[in-house]
Model the fold of this input.
Amino acid sequence: MSDDYVHGYSERETQRLFDQASTLCELLHSGTYYPPGSKVLEAGCGVGAQTVLLAQKSPQARITSIDISPDSLASAKQLAGNHGIRNVEFRVADIFDPPFEDESFDHIFLCFVMEHLKEPQKALQSLKRVLRPGGSITAIEGDHGSAFFSPESTEASKAIECLVNLQRRSGGDAKVGRRLYPLLCGAGFEDDQVSPRMDYVDDSRPEWVEGFTKLTFTAMVEGVEREVLDSRMMERAAWKKGIADLYRTAGHDGTFCYTFFKGVAKKPLHQ
Done:
């Protein structure tokens, strides 16, 4: 992450990341397990919301979690300590220039990182250098263009698009999930497999209504209100209606659907 992180570094955003990670744990982390003794690099760990889940699912793996923000790493260390995590080392580092020897890691994991990068394929190429031949990389990203909901709302759709545009202005791509396959291929990985992980929420799943529709997605959109209004991307009344309509999808007769993408690939045995 960097100063271009569109969601900011507020306490509210930190809590949103925790809510998101806990709600989406099985949806996104199922199938991700690293054997005892394997060396894993988590690239762009942020405040550690995904780190805890990663470490808990592979308790005997040796995980190194890096981020460019010292403040985020401090939060990640504290969170890991609170959960009794002992198999993770945290280091300040840039994923475009990871300070490790070639072929240092057996596996690489990154989640919700490439959406914030100006050059995601270059980041993947840099990470590939420190991965051993035959080692795996797992990348998970969302795609804000995949959101659809009921009741429909022009203002709610426009509010989401404002977030997409703000991220584009900062050099990121809020729809990067649909690009995972060509990004991994372009970075020189092989055996690339990308699977959609659809999150569908209605009133029969109250924990998802609260954890995803309200506390994850709508809270994320609502969090860029100041930037949207200051740049006059939407008028205040239309923006407020859009946010209210997103919360409305969490009602008894509302539904919300969003698709994440999980890519897994390998570094070729021979370059």
Observations:
- The beta strands are 39-43, 62-67, 88-92, 105-111, 131-141, 148-150, 190-201, 255-266.
- Residues 11-266 form a domain with the Rossmann fold fold (CATH 3.40.50.150).
